[in-house]
């Protein structure tokens, strides 16, 4: 097993929100990411999964220090805490951590040529001579499947998939150690998604890249990841390896999420009971006291309302934040099955 | 039995800067009473345009029905007056859209918006409309409808707004409900709720549903029959189970196998996804006498580039417009 | 490796500006406006050279109507050649228009960009400052400036600029607020672009389209403003501008209407041409109207 490359400890992000309802001088905070910890092994992909408002994107962008809110916690990359940042440290961190953005239509500067966009990190973060930068850009264009004569074109002259290739080339240019892929295919047409997903996997095995892959699409995650962290309302509720999580989900939310994905496989549709979780996620400014999933959980117990469950694995690598896992009662999944 | 909706050789032309392009090119299909069908394809293939044509809502001055008929209960909608179309839109055919935030008017409460529809189209009085609106909110499973009826759209979540849209669409007990990517903007757990709701409502009211989507999984969950569109043309049609099990058009096949699906028992093995290379052609290339998919097709031959493939019936229920349909 | 670009023919690089020009060229009204504007500018530059009659000299009897005695547009109340005045006045009028628009845009962009980029207390302060200028009655305020500091050309330009920059500031701020949230700005940050670089090389160029349109229209309104001030006599009597021709002849409007009408028409046509060009720019630069 590969060594851990990235170790995120107790990461929290909170945003000050409007003064409405509070007195003068008081600020209330929306905690988008609440004390989460996870690790990523070198050359592997950690997927962070969750629905909108779960904090998955905020958590990932906080690692790259791209969120406006107040961030706390430690991000250890290759043994070094990259969180405290003076100017030079920030530059060094940006070289090592790059981002592929969700929307290829808005993440490329419309006034720059494709080659300038790909070169931008090199210009800002390295002191390489112009010729070397040109060679790097040429190689990257080839690696992501763009033709050399397209270097001079502007973003609006490319299709969505091609734009995302430019975005990928940009993220690769400084040879980063970690690439954060923020829903890299969700804005693309289905047929184009496959092209980009295959490209990402090919580049990963070619260059030994480490990805943090943000997505709400469990099918895509299942295909891309080596391990998964499931987030709900700012907390990680389950963190496990790919097979363990998809074949044997422990947390009721993970199970519900999996069962909600529409499937073309008739046997899967007939044999897996859909776990419908009612209602909507709670108001992030007014979270339940205990487990945050309690208001929608099909098997919630009384003490779930009071005690915040810890993310623990009881000695295994399969971490779950649910009281019912380690209680002697029943496993949550069993409870779910029985409830049906 | 005469189908509820019958579209015959429909051709819709769209004016663009480069000239006139057929966004819908010789499309025929039928929708039975209480049936649920799905239009599938990538964006820019004419799925939404079909829906807008049925609703009589083609962008004015830009799009027009060039030929063909849309028969609804025997009446040709392409020849109907604006007034008649408005009447049909309110009472017989309803539509819900992808983005439920922008489809609701932000300055009125949801109750007012539902009641307005009931008053305008069913001639209900103020009080009756209000009571009915609360019942509809209950029918679309909004908890505590008596209280939520006074909410403004911004006070609701995306899923609840889509429920309100469904309530408005169902207010007049339409015979057909057109759902244009109804859950694309929603989370999967909410999507599951909405699908569940639509299925139940269909069973209760017998409303036919036309769902437009790009998600094969959603089609499999929701529809009985599906029509795959490519570049303004129908490339395949058939019962959902048959098409998914054995697609007869390379594009359909590509659409199904390019998506990583959740499987029952995941293994260590991971195959490369099948790619459909390239992208949907631009409007300028629509309407040529050739297979428009040929540029992206793994089975392309000279014939594909020289003539448009006819729609051929295969195995009794599936229709495929491919010169090589037998081999697929 | 599959290549989704396979069948796309080789394209030539077309910058957004080149695209905008393409759009602009297809707009007939805007092209007419542009043509008129070019004629006027050419007239201002070369007119006095081709037609060297001194605009300040009495050349014939006062009030001789257009077309007579070889004076195409007639003479004014002092017997000065109106055509010559018009050609010479065009220079001054256009220079004031451009210079005032430049002052407007310079102040407006600076204030708006700082407010939009930094936000928070800086934004609050700058926007209150902007509002202060916005509520001042513009004509009155500029009259005060001109009468206090003298009716020299630079002072008139400055007075017009100082009272009209608020619109540009607000537009700039709004655009900055919008562009600041775009993913490509975050992408630039992820690529290590420092703050100043972000503001000037990423956000500003992308905010320019509506500012350019506004500035073009500003030239027109500055010309009108100058005419207004001149009409009220707040102008340098030794320099001939279109507004000044109207102002000095206004007492004779009933006897010799043409002395006022002709420069008035010149102003009207120029401002109209600028508006047409401004509209054309708006359509060409506004991506929402752009079709594929």
From TrEMBL, chain B:
Pfam families: ABC_tran (PF00005), oligo_HPY (PF08352). It is found in: Cell inner membrane. One of its GO terms (biological process) is peptide transport. The keyword Cell membrane applies. Residues 5-256 form the ABC transporter domain. GO terms for cellular component: plasma membrane. InterPro entries: AAA+_ATPase (IPR003593), ABC_Ni/Peptide_Import (IPR050388), ABC_transporter-like_ATP-bd (IPR003439), ABC_transporter-like_CS (IPR017871), Oligopep_ABC_C (IPR013563), P-loop_NTPase (IPR027417). NCBIfam families: oligo_HPY. Belongs to the ABC transporter superfamily. This is ABC transporter ATP-binding protein. The lineage of its organism: Bacteria, Pseudomonadati, Pseudomonadota, Alphaproteobacteria, Rhodobacterales.
From TrEMBL, chain C:
The chain crosses the membrane at residues 29-51, 94-120, 132-149, 211-235, 256-277. Gene3D superfamilies: MetI-like. The keyword Cell membrane applies. It is found in: Cell membrane. GO terms for biological process: peptide transport; protein transport; transmembrane transport. Keywords: Cell membrane, Membrane, Peptide transport, Protein transport, Transmembrane, Transmembrane helix, Transport. It is a multi-pass membrane protein. Its main location: membrane. One of its GO terms (cellular component) is plasma membrane. Residues 90-278 form the ABC transmembrane type-1 domain. Belongs to the binding-protein-dependent transport system permease family. This is ABC transporter permease. It comes from Paracoccus alkanivorans.
